[in-house]
Amino acid sequence: MSSLFRRTLVAVIGCGLFLTVTAPAALAHDSLKSSSPAKGATVSGVETIELEYSSRVRFPLVVLRTAAGQTIKLGEPQADGPKVRTAVPGPLAGGSYVIAWRVVSSDGHPIEGEIPFTVKGTSSSSTTPETAAATTAPAVSAQTSRPAAAAQGGGGIPGWLWAGLAALVVLGLAIWLLSRRTAGPDEPAGQPDAPRAP
Fold first, then answer.
1. Segment 12-46, tens digit of pLDDT
2. Per 3-state DSSP, what percentage of the chain is helix, strand, and coil (rounded to 5)?
């Protein structure tokens, strides 16, 4: 009995030591090591969301929300070992955002978390093209209006007035020529007959 008791006691102690050593490793799930953008960071823009974990993860899910709770559509998240990448299709407006993520860790348990960050306001950059367009538009309109005004002015005298004057000159010449032909051969054109003596 004593030998059996000793063997049982040794087996119990051995199992206890084994569980003591392996339990923390089994209970320690994978964790998020770093992210881009980082938690609480202020960035000028985001093209790709990158998450890095302490070990290989599977079945990633990444959601981007605004401060008002509006969900922004992202690309399909891709898991590559301990890293997960998600593309942001378009530029983000200035404001506060939250990245909500969820993955299945290497031990088979799901883990999740949130990463708040801020995008700098882009009002100055967005108004620059509008200001440039506003300043360019008057210059273009002024350039196009000058030839139009010159064409309308015609050097100060409209073209139809020149045509009318030419028509009057031609008409005057025609009347003058006809009056010369109707006059007699011995009488000068345009001279009245002299009075005869009684």
1. 455 454 545 444 444 567 899 999 999 999 999 99
2. 40, 25, 30
